[in-house]
Amino acid sequence: MQQTKRKVHFIAIGGSVMHNLAIALKKAGYEVTGSDDEIFEPSRSVLADQGLLPKESGWFPEKITADTDVVILGMHAKADNPELLKAQELGLTIQSFPDFIYNNSINKQRVVIAGSHGKTTITAVIVPVLNYFMRKFDYVIRARVTGLAQTVLLSYAPIVIIEEDEYLSCALAPTQ
Predict the structure, then answer these.
(1) Quick one: average pLDDT of 71-99?
(2) Do the Cβ atoms of 37 and 14 come closer than 8 Å?
(3) Which domains does the chain have, with CATH numbers?
(4) How far is CA 165 from CA 27, 113, 116, 137, 168, in A?
Protein backbone atom coordinates (compact mmCIF):
# COMPACT_ATOMS: atom_id res chain seq x y z
CA MET A 1 0.00 0.00 0.00
CA GLN A 2 2.91 2.36 0.61
CA GLN A 3 6.62 2.37 -0.17
CA THR A 4 7.99 4.69 2.53
CA LYS A 5 6.71 5.47 6.00
CA ARG A 6 4.18 8.25 5.77
CA LYS A 7 2.80 10.48 8.49
CA VAL A 8 -0.99 10.75 8.62
CA HIS A 9 -3.09 12.83 11.02
CA PHE A 10 -6.81 12.24 11.59
CA ILE A 11 -9.05 15.14 12.53
CA ALA A 12 -12.02 13.40 14.23
CA ILE A 13 -10.27 10.05 14.67
CA GLY A 14 -13.09 8.67 16.84
CA GLY A 15 -15.61 8.24 14.04
CA SER A 16 -16.95 4.75 13.46
CA VAL A 17 -15.07 4.27 10.20
CA MET A 18 -12.31 6.83 10.80
CA HIS A 19 -10.83 4.94 13.73
CA ASN A 20 -10.82 1.74 11.69
CA LEU A 21 -8.93 3.46 8.86
CA ALA A 22 -6.43 4.82 11.41
CA ILE A 23 -5.83 1.27 12.70
CA ALA A 24 -5.52 -0.14 9.17
CA LEU A 25 -2.93 2.51 8.29
CA LYS A 26 -0.97 1.89 11.48
CA LYS A 27 -0.91 -1.83 10.69
CA ALA A 28 0.29 -0.98 7.17
CA GLY A 29 3.25 0.92 8.63
CA TYR A 30 2.05 4.51 8.61
CA GLU A 31 2.85 6.88 11.48
CA VAL A 32 -0.66 7.76 12.69
CA THR A 33 -1.81 10.55 14.99
CA GLY A 34 -5.27 11.92 15.63
CA SER A 35 -7.52 14.20 17.62
CA ASP A 36 -11.19 14.40 18.47
CA ASP A 37 -13.43 16.39 20.79
CA GLU A 38 -15.40 13.31 21.86
CA ILE A 39 -14.72 9.61 21.38
CA PHE A 40 -17.38 7.08 22.36
CA GLU A 41 -17.33 3.32 22.76
CA PRO A 42 -16.43 1.08 21.08
CA SER A 43 -14.06 3.44 19.22
CA ARG A 44 -12.44 4.60 22.47
CA SER A 45 -11.43 1.11 23.63
CA VAL A 46 -10.34 0.00 20.17
CA LEU A 47 -8.13 3.07 19.69
CA ALA A 48 -6.67 2.59 23.19
CA ASP A 49 -5.88 -1.07 22.45
CA GLN A 50 -3.99 0.01 19.32
CA GLY A 51 -2.12 2.86 21.05
CA LEU A 52 -3.97 5.47 18.98
CA LEU A 53 -6.29 7.03 21.58
CA PRO A 54 -5.46 10.74 21.90
CA LYS A 55 -4.18 11.67 25.36
CA GLU A 56 -6.71 14.52 25.61
CA SER A 57 -10.00 15.44 24.00
CA GLY A 58 -9.99 18.50 21.80
CA TRP A 59 -8.23 20.03 18.84
CA PHE A 60 -4.51 20.72 18.95
CA PRO A 61 -3.08 22.61 15.95
CA GLU A 62 0.45 21.90 17.22
CA LYS A 63 -0.10 18.27 16.18
CA ILE A 64 -0.17 19.46 12.56
CA THR A 65 3.40 19.84 11.31
CA ALA A 66 5.02 20.45 7.96
CA ASP A 67 6.19 16.81 7.80
CA THR A 68 2.60 15.52 7.85
CA ASP A 69 1.97 13.82 4.51
CA VAL A 70 -1.81 13.82 4.64
CA VAL A 71 -4.54 15.04 6.97
CA ILE A 72 -7.72 12.98 6.89
CA LEU A 73 -10.72 15.08 7.86
CA GLY A 74 -13.71 13.45 9.53
CA MET A 75 -17.25 14.50 8.78
CA HIS A 76 -18.01 16.08 12.16
CA ALA A 77 -15.04 18.47 12.10
CA LYS A 78 -16.19 21.97 11.20
CA ALA A 79 -14.59 24.29 8.63
CA ASP A 80 -13.19 26.45 11.46
CA ASN A 81 -11.47 23.52 13.18
CA PRO A 82 -8.07 24.78 14.44
CA GLU A 83 -6.24 21.69 13.16
CA LEU A 84 -7.83 22.04 9.73
CA LEU A 85 -6.91 25.73 9.61
CA LYS A 86 -3.30 24.89 10.52
CA ALA A 87 -3.15 22.19 7.82
CA GLN A 88 -4.48 24.68 5.27
CA GLU A 89 -1.99 27.32 6.43
CA LEU A 90 0.88 24.83 5.92
CA GLY A 91 -0.47 23.82 2.49
CA LEU A 92 -0.76 20.16 3.49
CA THR A 93 -2.73 17.55 1.58
CA ILE A 94 -6.17 17.34 3.20
CA GLN A 95 -8.54 14.56 2.21
CA SER A 96 -11.90 13.33 3.39
CA PHE A 97 -12.22 9.65 4.27
CA PRO A 98 -13.79 8.86 0.85
CA ASP A 99 -11.10 10.86 -0.96
CA PHE A 100 -8.36 8.92 0.84
CA ILE A 101 -9.96 5.57 -0.01
CA TYR A 102 -10.45 6.64 -3.64
CA ASN A 103 -6.85 7.85 -4.00
CA ASN A 104 -5.54 4.62 -2.50
CA SER A 105 -7.65 2.41 -4.75
CA ILE A 106 -7.10 4.07 -8.13
CA ASN A 107 -5.42 0.97 -9.56
CA LYS A 108 -7.78 -1.54 -7.98
CA GLN A 109 -11.00 -3.04 -9.21
CA ARG A 110 -13.55 -1.26 -7.02
CA VAL A 111 -16.79 -2.96 -6.07
CA VAL A 112 -19.11 -0.49 -4.35
CA ILE A 113 -22.15 -1.72 -2.44
CA ALA A 114 -24.82 1.00 -2.52
CA GLY A 115 -28.46 1.42 -1.63
CA SER A 116 -30.79 2.52 1.14
CA HIS A 117 -30.73 -0.63 3.25
CA GLY A 118 -28.63 -3.76 3.63
CA LYS A 119 -25.26 -2.41 2.47
CA THR A 120 -23.37 -3.72 5.51
CA THR A 121 -25.10 -7.09 5.32
CA ILE A 122 -24.31 -7.55 1.64
CA THR A 123 -20.71 -6.45 2.14
CA ALA A 124 -20.40 -8.82 5.11
CA VAL A 125 -21.55 -11.69 2.88
CA ILE A 126 -19.11 -10.88 0.06
CA VAL A 127 -16.04 -10.81 2.34
CA PRO A 128 -16.21 -14.47 3.50
CA VAL A 129 -17.04 -15.62 -0.05
CA LEU A 130 -13.89 -13.95 -1.39
CA ASN A 131 -11.93 -15.43 1.53
CA TYR A 132 -13.34 -18.88 0.73
CA PHE A 133 -12.10 -18.59 -2.85
CA MET A 134 -8.73 -17.30 -1.56
CA ARG A 135 -8.96 -14.01 -3.44
CA LYS A 136 -6.73 -11.14 -2.34
CA PHE A 137 -8.89 -8.11 -1.63
CA ASP A 138 -9.28 -5.05 0.54
CA TYR A 139 -12.46 -3.78 2.11
CA VAL A 140 -14.05 -0.74 3.71
CA ILE A 141 -17.12 -1.47 5.81
CA ARG A 142 -18.74 1.32 7.80
CA ALA A 143 -20.13 -0.81 10.64
CA ARG A 144 -18.87 -3.63 12.83
CA VAL A 145 -19.33 -7.07 11.35
CA THR A 146 -19.32 -10.32 13.31
CA GLY A 147 -16.24 -12.34 12.44
CA LEU A 148 -14.12 -9.41 11.25
CA ALA A 149 -11.56 -7.97 13.66
CA GLN A 150 -11.32 -4.77 11.63
CA THR A 151 -13.69 -3.10 9.19
CA VAL A 152 -11.02 -1.53 6.99
CA LEU A 153 -8.25 -3.45 5.26
CA LEU A 154 -5.93 -1.74 2.77
CA SER A 155 -3.02 -3.49 1.07
CA TYR A 156 -1.70 -4.19 -2.41
CA ALA A 157 -4.70 -6.41 -3.23
CA PRO A 158 -6.14 -5.91 -6.73
CA ILE A 159 -9.76 -5.61 -5.55
CA VAL A 160 -11.45 -3.41 -2.94
CA ILE A 161 -15.00 -3.90 -1.65
CA ILE A 162 -16.45 -0.58 -0.45
CA GLU A 163 -19.66 -0.01 1.46
CA GLU A 164 -21.05 3.27 0.11
CA ASP A 165 -22.31 6.00 2.43
CA GLU A 166 -24.77 8.76 1.55
CA TYR A 167 -23.62 11.29 4.15
CA LEU A 168 -21.40 14.33 3.58
CA SER A 169 -17.79 13.29 3.81
CA CYS A 170 -16.32 16.32 5.61
CA ALA A 171 -16.39 20.09 6.13
CA LEU A 172 -14.65 20.60 2.79
CA ALA A 173 -17.38 18.81 0.83
CA PRO A 174 -19.48 21.06 -1.40
CA THR A 175 -22.77 22.14 0.12
CA GLN A 176 -25.97 21.26 -1.68
Answers:
(1) 94
(2) no
(3) 7-101 (3.40.50.720), 106-163 (no CATH)
(4) 24, 9, 9, 20, 8
